């Protein structure tokens, strides 16, 4: 039997002043920095210089500890099974699109409060999906609990009543999850479209600036060259040459 597929949804750190350290790209940059400094410290150590290696190891550990604490104190929700994976996949993609598009909405939308609101809503929606999974699991145990009971056993009636209550709860949760997912994807579509337009406008502005630079270069080249209406000295030089040669022929004879 294979391992159960699970997905962990992380929220903000429980320690308020550590929350910025748990957000991308701080953890990935910290990991790269630790890898680089560890490699350098290892080089010092193997080359016979233990003191710089120990100092570098200590500085790396001191810098990485707050980030590790921030990551370890994050709120998280674990989604398991096919339902959790299938339900969260479009939700996670929508939140990722929202976070990618968010910088493009500045200054119309404040970045930090909006990012915090998205993080809280993301974790809240993940918790709703997890609660739905727990209700489904309890409903399954209610079904199996009635096996072997006689038809007139009053416990069977209680189990049936609770099964109906659990079914109603599941229906309500499914409706809420579907509604929130639909709204979330619609918002992500609008933000992505706006971000695409802003990016297209920036590309057009860059192309326009390049075109204006080309025009300025052409104008500067034309201004630095010989004007089209400038006097051509060649005819005058030719006329002078003919006069000089004619005078020379008169002095030297007709053979020249």
Structure explained in plain terms:
The chain has 256 residues and is mostly helical. The chain is built from six helices and two strands; from the N terminus they run βααβαααα. A two-stranded antiparallel sheet has the order 1-2. The model has no long low-confidence stretch (mean pLDDT 84).
Write the layout of secondary structure elements.
Elements: E1 6-13, H1 26-46, H2 50-72, E2 74-80, H3 81-101, H4 111-145, H5 154-224, H6 234-252
Antiparallel strand pairs: 1-2
Helix pairs in contact: 1-2, 3-4, 3-5, 4-5
Explain briefly what this protein structure is.
With 256 residues, this protein is mostly helical. The protein has helices at 26-46, 50-72, 81-101, 111-145, 154-224, 234-252, and strands at residues 6-13, 74-80. Helices cover 74% and strands 6% of the residues.
Distinctive features:
256 residues, mainly alpha, 6 helices, 2 strands, elongated, two-stranded antiparallel sheet
Strand arrangement in the largest pleated sheet: 1-2
Number of strands: 2
* Apparent shape: elongated
Structural class: mainly alpha
Helical residue percent band = over 70%
Number of helices: 6
The rounded Rg comes to 39 Å
Distance between the termini: 114 Å
Strand count, sense and barrel status of the largest sheet are: 2 strands, antiparallel
Task: Please report which band the strand proportion falls in: under 5%, 5-15%, 15-25%, 25-35%, 35-45% or over 45%.
Answer: 5-15%
Low-confidence stretches: none
Secondary-structure element string:
EHHEHHHH
Average predicted local confidence, pLDDT: 84
